[in-house]
């Protein structure tokens, strides 16, 4: 399984902080995002926009990154700390 | 050393720890605070969220990068999360070095990269409700300047 985490406005709008997705061969971060977008309007609204970042195993990653069983994937907006 | 915590920090105590090294001739500190304006006007409070695990790793990484660029003695990064009120302290960065220029530069480098790479998100509360703060181009440009 792949653990998927959501932060900030993404978490707030979809009303969910994590889901588990079955790992499939060749699944990329972008394919996972598109799979989640199909869950409905709120998912499309947050994960469908260009301004979303993805981290794989707690490292900021590219959308083409291939995912494996046991990975932790996080979707979040650009950071605003400090 | 990078720490994420809900509780406040004591600037004098953090300074004392940084200044304790007899080889250190310069200490530079930065404190970020909750102010009454941002993306919203009349901000009265703020909530900070982070990504546990990744945040600490990023803070460690930017410290490693700063140490590779300048001769530094001690580095302290403290970032608060949770609910904060107007004038509350949000972030502390302290750097000690034998030389002032290295300490000044490293402190600025650390806050520039913290603001663009560390997974923290701010939500402002004002009399119009709550709003997530947008990332700023100016912060991105400040971080990019170090790569030229």
What series of H and E elements makes up the topology of chain B? EHEEHEEEHEEH
Topology-level CATH name of chain B = Aldehyde Oxidoreductase, domain 3
CATH class of chain A: Alpha Beta
Q: So how many helices of chain B? A: 4
State the end-to-end distance of chain B: 26 Å
Question: Order of SSEs of chain A, N→C?
Answer: EHEHHEEE
Helix content of chain A: 25-40%
CATH class designation of chain B: Alpha Beta
The largest β sheet of chain A comes out as: 5 strands, mixed
| Order of neighbouring strands in the sheet with most strands of chain B | 1-4-6-2
Helical content band of chain B: 25-40%
CATH level-two architecture of chain B = Alpha-Beta Complex
Which superfamily, in CATH terms, is the homologous superfamily of chain A? Beta-grasp domain
- Strand arrangement within the widest β-sheet of chain A reads 2-1-5-3-4
Low-confidence stretches of chain B: none
Radius of gyration over C-alpha positions of chain A, nearest whole angstrom = 12 Å
Strand content of chain B: 25-35%
Radius of gyration of chain B: 16 Å
The general outline of chain A is globular
Protein name (chain A): Molybdopterin synthase sulfur carrier subunit
GO cellular component, one term (chain A): molybdopterin adenylyltransferase complex
GO molecular function, one term (chain A): transferase activity
Family (chain A): Belongs to the MoaD family.
């Amino acid at each position: 399984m792949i653990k998927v985490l959501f932060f900030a406005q993404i978490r707030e709008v979809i009303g969910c902080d994590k889901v588990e997705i079955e790992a499939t061969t060749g699944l990329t971060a972008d394919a996972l995002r598109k799979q989640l977008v199909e869950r409905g309007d709120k998912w499309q609204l947050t994960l469908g926009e260009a301004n979303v970042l993805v981290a794989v195993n707690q490292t900021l990653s590219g959308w083409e990154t291939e995912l494996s069983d046991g990975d932790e994937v996080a979707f979040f907006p650009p950071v605003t700390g400090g | 050393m990078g720490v994420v915590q809900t509780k406040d920090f004591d600037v004098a105590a953090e300074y004392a720890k940084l200044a304790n090294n007899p080889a250190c001739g310069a200490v530079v500190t930065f404190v970020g605070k909750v102010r009454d304006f941002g993306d919203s006007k009349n901000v009265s409070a703020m909530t900070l969220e982070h990504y546990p695990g990744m945040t600490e790793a990023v803070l460690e990484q930017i410290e490693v990068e700063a140490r590779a660029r300048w001769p530094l003695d001690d580095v302290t990064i403290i970032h608060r999360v949770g609910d904060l009120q107007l004038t509350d302290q949000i972030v502390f960065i302290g750097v000690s070095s034998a030389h002032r220029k290295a300490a000044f530069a490293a402190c600025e480098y650390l806050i520039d990269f913290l603001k663009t790479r560390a997974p923290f998100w701010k939500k402002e509360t004002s009399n119009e409700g709550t709003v997530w703060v947008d990332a700023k181009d100016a912060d991105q440009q400040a971080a990019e300047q170090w790569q030229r």
